[in-house]
Amino acid sequence: MSTPSAARVTLAELAAEAGVSIATASKVLNGRADVAASTRRRVETLLDQHGYQRRQGAQSSSRLVELVFHELESAWSMEVIRGVEDVASQHGMSVVLTESGTRHAPGDDWLEGVLGRRPVAVVLVFSDLPEAMRAALRTRSIPFVIVDPAGDPSPEVPAVGSANWAGGLAAVRHLIDLGHKRIAAITGPEDMMCSLARIDGYRSAMNAAGLPVKEEWIRFGDFHRSGGARHAADLLALPEPPTAIFAGSDLQALGVLETARSLGLRVPDDLSLVGYDDIPLANWVSPRLTTVHQPLRQMGSEATRLAIRLAEGPIVGGTPRMDLATSLVVRESTAPLLD
Questions:
Q1: Which H/E stretch holds residue 196?
Q2: What is the enclosing helix (H) or strand (E) of 146?
């Protein structure tokens, strides 16, 4: 195998080195399915070794921005979609939605599809991308940005997130200011950085106030209503149940509200509740939900703006990363602790 050369390698030279026709090399480059797996691997390896990149600006005539989720059923995803569509429409582009993989990375089958669709840029709602996927996108000059990374993306990965630690801190400080001392938290999955950051904010607020943090008060959920309901049932069955719960998503907060009502508890009279995300539904339920506003629509917009900017050429100054501010929105689901 040859080493990467300083001179720009041509597709014809790569095809000759791989022992295939230019047409076959072009099929691999364009994500066509009618290529043997062993041939595809051989050509992909050479593309990566030589640092081959399709000429900037020549990679797509589709005028598409691809937005990729691991699930599309959540109201959370709709806010991101709106943000992506806002910026795409401003640039005369359309958005194609894809559902693939887990929260950590898209499925292996996604790569073949996106190479065939050849979008101008890709926005992904995942924790990271495997190096093989990154290399394949770089080769085709398809820039990508990760929005609200669930994990801690590699340093060279462009990403737009939000201030999760500050959001958790603000939520719990609000409950402490209302006189609550027994405060529980239901965050997301334990292998997601945003879940851990929100819990770190919770711990920081409790420690700063000199309040104890019992490990039984901290629960790792799934960001869905059912998980919030299940963990709330366990928390409210404790010998000394919490008087307030910080839920790491509005959907989990709705699950807590459902469980509290089933137990005859009134929110906020018997239990104060804070959510996270500030999805539209938070303002429609009764009582209206106090929550941490995560700028989901803006995160989608900024990620799309950045991805399109990367499609126009490299950005000087290193890999762009951005964390947007969160803020507390006080409504009717929290109240002072009654003696």
A1: helix 193-208
A2: strand 144-147
**Stronger pLDDT, 19 or 119, i.e. the higher one:** 119
DSSP string, 263-303: TT--TTTT-EEEEEE--GGGGTSSSPPEEEE--HHHHHHHH
In 3D space, the residue among 257, 228, 282 whose CA is nearest the CA of residue 75 turns out to be 282
Q: Which amino acid is located at 77 in the chain?
A: S
Q: What is the pLDDT of residues 14-33, one digit of tens each?
A: 666 667 666 666 666 666 66
Integer angstrom CA distances of residue 70 from 57, 84, 106, 170: 29, 16, 7, 29
Each residue's pLDDT tens digit, 71-105: 877 778 889 999 999 999 999 999 999 998 887 88
How many Å apart are CA 215 and CA 225, to the nearest integer?
A: 22
Residue of 50, 56, 42 whose CA lies nearest to 9? 50
100: helix, strand or coil: coil
Predicted pLDDT of residue 102: 83
Rounded distance, CA 250 to CA 270, Å? 19
Q: Which domains does the chain have, with CATH numbers?
A: 11-49 (no CATH), 64-162+297-324 (3.40.50.2300), 164-293 (3.40.50.2300)
Return the residue matching tokens 């404790």.
Answer: 238
Cβ-in-10-Å burial (0-12, 13-18, 19+) of 287 comes to middle
List CB contacts of 38: < 8 A, sequence separation 6 or more.
Answer: none
Over residues 43-79, the pLDDT tens digits come to 667 666 666 655 544 444 578 999 999 887 777 888 9
